[in-house]
Specification:
The chain is of the alpha/beta class. It contains 5 helices and 5 strands; from the N terminus they run E-H-E-H-E-H-E-H-E-H. Strand 4, helix 4 and strand 5 form a beta-alpha-beta unit.
Length: 124
């Protein structure tokens, strides 16, 4: 079964992501902190990770860097953030994310991004 790890500290956003992904018929694993997310990624080996930038323990940038420097580097990471500045977008790309979406995100944009990054990952 297709698995998505959502690293997001806001419960409302977690529920929204699950609702948006219903059409994919996938398993969605939630993590509320970057640390929980790193552990969940190692345990569940998701097909894609949705990463918030502002997390309670350390940033989504740092979590992305750690994942991309590990044995899990092949897992695509999509950053979801309300911060729409060019600086934030560049920081996300510098950290190694595979895609960047602004919140609020539509379900069609989220599903399209997931399909694109997973297709690219399987071509490598």
């Amino acid at each position: 079964m297709f698995c998505v790890l959502s690293i997001e500290d806001e419960m409302l956003n977690q529920r929204l992501v699950k609702k948006m992904l219903k059409s994919l018929d996938c398993q969605v694993i939630d993590a509320e902190t970057a640390s929980e997310g790193l552990l969940a990624a190692d345990e569940y080996l998701p097909d894609v990770i949705l990463m918030d930038v502002n997390l309670p323990d350390f940033s989504g940038y740092e979590a992305t860097r750690q994942l991309k420097e590990s044995s899990l580097a092949h897992i695509p990471i999509i950053i979801l953030t309300a911060d729409t500045t060019a600086h934030t977008q560049q920081a996300c790309l510098d950290a190694g994310c595979d895609a960047y979406l602004n919140k609020p995100v539509s379900s069609s944009a989220l599903i399209r991004a997931i399909q694109q990054v997973t297709a690219q990952a399987h071509l490598i």
